[in-house]
Amino acid sequence: MASQRGEGETTTTPLEPADRERARAIPEAAVARLAVYLRVLSGMADQGVNAVSSEELSQAAGVNAAKLRKDLSYIGSYGTRGVGYDVEVLVSHIERILGLTRNHSVAVVGIGNLGHALANYGGFPGRGFPVTALFDVDADLIGVPVGGIPVNHIDEITAICLEREVSIGVIATPPPAAQSVCDRLVSAGVQCILNFAPVVLQVPDNVEVRKVDLAVEMQILSFHVARRADEAASVSVDNNGLGVDGMVIRP
Amino acid sequence: MASQRGEGETTTTPLEPADRERARAIPEAAVARLAVYLRVLSGMADQGVNAVSSEELSQAAGVNAAKLRKDLSYIGSYGTRGVGYDVEVLVSHIERILGLTRNHSVAVVGIGNLGHALANYGGFPGRGFPVTALFDVDADLIGVPVGGIPVNHIDEITAICLEREVSIGVIATPPPAAQSVCDRLVSAGVQCILNFAPVVLQVPDNVEVRKVDLAVEMQILSFHVARRADEAASVSVDNNGLGVDGMVIRP
DNA sequence: CCGACTTTGTGCATCCGTTCACAAGCGGTA
DNA sequence: TACCGCTTGTGAACGGATGCACAAAGTCGG
After folding, report:
1. What is the CA B10 to C1' D27 distance in angstroms?
2. Does residue A217 lie in a domain region?
3. Which residues contact B237 (CB under 8 A, 6 or more apart)?
4. In angstroms, how far is CA B168 from the centroid of its own chain?
5. Which residue, B50, B106, B42, B59, is CA-closest to B80?
6. pLDDT for the residue numbered B145
7. Last residue of a domain, which of A40, A64, A97?
8. What is the CATH number of the domain that holds B84?
9. A91 and A29 inside one domain
10. Chain B residue with minimal CA distance to A147?
């Protein structure tokens, strides 16, 4: 409502009071989708697309059109009725809300298979997330550069994180080490953590943790496999014997 | 209600009708949590713990006790009032509901940094998910064993997935290849896909996709960093100048 | 055998997120 | 300028998940 069209300020980096209040109210689920919209929109911009309707964008993002509009409405009214959205404008506004106008320095702890992979992503997909520090306990790894960054010993976390202003810590250690690493990151002032270790981390209220848990993902899929298998079984009992061989298409 | 205590059948592998009906009704969010409870319980079992109350378990899993009980009630009534839950019993029932009594053969497509890491996990954390096939397009990789499995060319997906009865496909390719790989997996009869590529996959209704999107995770964290920074800024305007240097603890 | 105590299982109220449906607003056209 | 068709933005209905609070059901000690 307020500042609906503020003359020429397109990419004001610090959030204005109105926006700040809005940001507080955006549901987490919507934030996740905004990130997806952003990627789709960036792709469109690269292909020279200028305008897009909620219908088109929602299909490309794999969501309901109404949901998309509501999500966008959380960040303000930047569409034009009867026309759609300007791709560039939307991109810059989503970036602003997601805080992508600043760089977020990332530290990866645990340089095993996964840690290697993460470090080598180099700046992370979609950039804006430069990896500036790597940590491990293995003496053989200390000093070895991975993805251009030398590995430091885990005991140096506090000093280095403060020095390099790390704002996001990524935990890719074995499970037993995760909580202790987490504690050290927290005491180094890191308030956002991405946890790949299959462990439930205990953190103070002012720290945000997101987890990526492969085992859980696999088990959820397993649940669905089992459910399908059971349904198929119960069907092949109901109508005797049909739908057993090879391709079973269920519309 | 029915079969509350069914004599001695502790680990019947095929689901009974009552359970099947239940499984259909379990909310997705609860399934994810069940997987977490399972891990915590397994850890307890390893440490020789026999019984556990909803209070203890919920704390270890980082959730509300009432929610935990409700989640467990979805799979049946296996607790003892006044006492708690038998760890072993709970483990076996959760495993059964999640379909972990069978093995689920996994294929990984895209043997880059991430694919390597995934293949080397070897059977995946929590086992029951043997990786039985690897695919890539890179001629230099074909035939090279990674984590004990030789890499096959991507064109062989259909034949090999059918032959090895792959039930879960993992996509770890670059974004442009993801949809095409997905299509091939689907036509090979794979109905569950774990997608690491930052792409929205289009699949038929009978295929289940779960995505792990690093960029999105990072951006969600970025959003929270920005929100915090803004709040801090607005606070340091309110009370002039306090809480700027070093450690800021907010209870 | 009984009564006190503990913990589960669940009905119910609440909250958050999704979906629907439509008025408001804008561009194009005559 | 006035009308028409299209698309946004959002109020309101809906549905699912969360949390509370308590009855039911079990154990343990006497």
Report:
1. 23
2. no
3. none
4. 12
5. B50
6. 96
7. A97
8. 1.10.10.10
9. yes
10. B113
Cβ-based neighbour number of residue A41 at 10 Å: 24
What's the CA gap between B132 and B144, in Å, rounded? 14
CATH code, domain with A123: 3.40.50.720
Whether residue B21 sits in one domain with residue B90? yes
Q: Average of pLDDT values for B103-107?
A: 95
In a domain, A235, yes or no: no
Residues 6+ apart with CB under 8 A from A178: A171, A195, A197, A199, A201
Return the amino acid letter for B58. S
Tell me if chain A has a CB within 8 Å of the CB of B121. yes
Return the number of CB contacts < 8 Å for A and B. Answer: 216
Nearest Cα residue to A38 out of A10, A83, A71, A5: A71
Residue B185's closest CA among B162, B210, B211, B213? B162
Angle made by CA atoms B105, B106, B109, in degrees to the nearest 5: 150
DSSP-assigned letter for residue B154: G
Dihedral-angle region of residue B30 (phi above 0 means left; psi in -120 to 50 means alpha; beta otherwise): alpha
Please state the rounded mean pLDDT for residues A109-117.
Answer: 94
Which of B113, B200, B249 has the CB atom closest to A61's CB atom? Answer: B200
* pLDDT in the model for residue B4: 35
Asked if the structure places residue A248 within a domain, the reply is: no
* Residue A142 and residue A184 in one domain: yes
In a shared domain, residues A110 and A143 = yes
Instruction: State the nearest Cα–Cα gap between A225 and chain B, in angstroms.
Output: 7
pLDDT in tens, A177-201: 999 999 999 999 999 999 999 999 9
Amino acid at A150: P
Taking a C-beta distance cutoff of 8 angstroms, is the pair A183, B64 a contact? Answer: no
Q: Residue A24's pLDDT is what?
A: 67
Contacts of B221 in chain A (CB under 8 A): 104, 168, 192-194, 208, 210
Per-residue pLDDT of B123-167, as tens digits, reads 665 678 999 999 999 999 999 999 999 999 999 999 999 999 999
**A68 domain-assigned:** yes
Residues A47 and A122 in one domain: no
Do B149 and B188 reside in the same domain of the chain? Answer: yes
Q: What angle do CA B195, B163, B96 make, to 5 degrees?
A: 65
* B147, B77: one domain: no
**Structural domain span for residue B208:** 106-212
Asked if residue B98 lies in contact with residue A222, where contact means CB atoms within 8 angstroms, the answer is: yes
The total domain count for chain A is 2
If asked whether residues B114 and B160 sit together in one domain, one would say yes
Query: Pick from B168, B163, B215: which is nearest to A217 by CA?
Result: B168
